[in-house]
Amino acid sequence: MRGIFFIGLGILFLNILPAQAAELPEWHGFAEQAYGYRISRDSLTKHRDYNMLEQRIQLKTRYAIPGENFLSARNGVITYKGDFVLDEYFATTGSFDLRELNLAFSPQSFIDIKAGRQILTWGTGDYVFINDFFPKDYVSFYIGRDDEYLKKPSDALRISLYPKAANIDFVLIPDFTPNTMPDGDRLSFFDSFQRGIVGRDSQRNAVKPAFKAENMQYALRIYRNFESTEGALYYYRGFDPSPRSYLDEANFQLFYERLDAYGASLRGPFASGIGNVETGYYRSRQDAHGDNRLIENSMFKLLVGYEKDMGNDLKIGAQYLYEQKLNYSAYRSALLPGDFFWDEYRHLLTQRITKLFKNQTVTLGLFNFWSPSDKDGYVRASCAYDISDQWKLVFGVNLPWGEDMTTDFGMMKKNKNAFVRARYSF
Amino acid sequence: MRKTLVFLAALFFVSNAWAQELNVDEIVIKANNRSYYQGKDGRAKVTMVVTDAQGRKRERQLTILKLNVQEGADQKYFVYFHKPNDVKGMSYIVWKHAGKDDDRWLYLPAMDLVRRIAASDKRSSFVGTTFLYEDISGRSIDLDKHELSASDAAYYTIKNTPKDAALVEFSYYTVKIDKNNFVPMKAEYFDKSGKLYRTIEALEVKVIQNYPTVTRMKAADLNAGSNTIAEFSDISYDIGLTDNIFTERFLRTPPQQWLKE
Question: CB within 8 A of A297, min separation 6: which ones?
Fold first, then answer.
């Protein structure tokens, strides 16, 4: 199905192209070499000394449909972006990662449509997502790839409506794309089946929802400005993008439980900076009463954030995230003796400091996660140097830590790395 | 003949006297409106070449769309980046407010992310050039005390002293304003010890749709030895920009008809 869609888009592209061969679109992109050295040796994973070694060429183009036809009259644009990757960590012969291939147009003055593979993001958090259920790649995040790779593309139809009262984004995702989570080959993690930190010996696997009509995912955002303040309401019906529920314990199988989520956010000027608040209620549809020990509880989440420009190209930011499982006593009483279980609450604090030097060509960045309840954290620090308009060099470290091996960052503590990326943009 | 001369001389004196009668605030308001508020709206493509002390060059290219909400006060800006290639496709919206912080949003297409930018410091570099945000979107005239420090046949020279010296890095700056058209031709910034450290100069002025417009401009940082030359092309005024262009919709989907390469 997905193949047919892209072939269709390809045919459309080819049909339009020959007529305007003289006006071929511009191609841009970059070539990048990246290496991530393990600060903490980890013999559980495929390579104990490094967790990233790859070359990447990204090509992208944007093609405004020319001529006089239905799409050109409606601002039709085709966007393509794809990465050729030589991932030496897995010693592959090379792979291709199609990041974007979509058609955007405005059938009416108050409607925008984007169909095809696309990156989708919304919400007010900084590296913290409450109402953004679009797929993410946390492996890329932990090994130090560019921020761009934290977001995975979705094959989706996005319909945006702009009536007077408010703006509406409606996204339909027919086929489920899960988050990319550490699975032991590259990053070790806590495997609740084995009750310990595991690497390649993990037998854990996650079963994706099948591609069928009842598994269609819907995401809705209604948003508007109140003067300088942005308000938004969110709704999502689909699946938890990370596998948190047990399908078959004997076969080490997890699955992505069904999820409904309702949320709201505000963002605007506050105390001579920018303040934001976002909240979400997650209803675990297959465990509405919370008494199924195998399925994730319903949850409440609240995020409060603040960012301020201190002058001299120095910016600081802070966030507080509160998470609570809503039927915790039902969950606890359903547990069997010896079951591994999760905590009821989680408090997470983040800090961001960004300082630019040398006419904004050098960026020093520090992002810190710290959870007093989980007693863990994750320090991300980087220094990016724009040597010229083409060359860019980034050094950084990823330092997850924690007292326990079961918490989000604590389980990652053997995956500390220092990375370097050199990029040539064209 | 003599009569004509007398008449011309009289006219010169009268016009001069009339010009002299403009008080300093009127001159400043006229110059500010000339620089930042001409037309109902406007569009320009800007190419900026930054040259550092070692002679290394960097290039920035962007399209700026501007809508005046209220003359001399609120404005909306849409900035679309063409170059360098690593920022190509990013767009930026500013709602400039008189008397309070601007609202700014940046769109990063690679992540489909609309980021709200905390930006109370208007005296930081504009996209890594020698120009500051305030040079591009204008410094509120209420922030300074203005004095007419000199006036010759061609120029007014205005000395501007900040009302709150703690907010800025200069102790004062002077601006030479062309008497004919009120275009500010040169600004010189003096640091707290009274030393000249920064200049902005209009290198070329053209009349576009009856609006005298600076089409080439240079900012120099005398301490760092760096400078930026900005060239404005494809300039047009009163093109019919509407308020809705300066919203998240067009941040995500840049308005193509105004952004031709």
Answer: A284, A287, A290, A325, A326, A327, A328, A331
Residue B100 domain-assigned?
Answer: yes
User: What pLDDT shows up at residue A1?
Assistant: 41
Interface probe for A, chosen from B80, B86, B115, B250 (most Cβ of A below 10 Å), is B86
Residue B10 falls within a domain, yes or no? Answer: no
Residue environment code for A201-214, b if the CB has 16+ CB neighbours within 10 A, otherwise e: ebebebeebeeeee
User: CA of A335, closest CA in chain B: separation in Å?
Assistant: 40
Domain housing B189: 23-258
- Residue-wise pLDDT tens digits, A153-200: 999 999 999 999 999 999 999 999 999 999 999 999 999 999 999 999
Work out how many domains chain B is built from and give that number: 1
Name the residue ranges covered by the structural domains of chain A.
Answer: 25-425
Contacts of B258 in chain A (CB under 8 A): none
pTM of the model: 0.91
CA proximity to A228, closest of B20, B61, B81, B104? B104
Per DSSP, the residues of A154-169 read: EEEEEEEE--SS-EEE
The per-residue pLDDT for range A335-369, each reduced to its tens digit, is: 998 888 889 999 999 999 999 999 899 999 999 99
Q: Do B110 and A104 touch (CB under 8 A)?
A: no
What chain A residue is nearest to B167 in terms of C-alpha separation? A311
Find the CATH number of the domain harbouring B215.
2.50.20.10
- Flag if B103 and A228 touch (Cβ within 8 Å): yes
Q: Do A392 and B86 make contact, defined as CB atoms within 8 angstroms?
A: yes
Domain A25-425, CATH 3.40.1180.10 — does that match? no
ipTM of the complex: 0.91
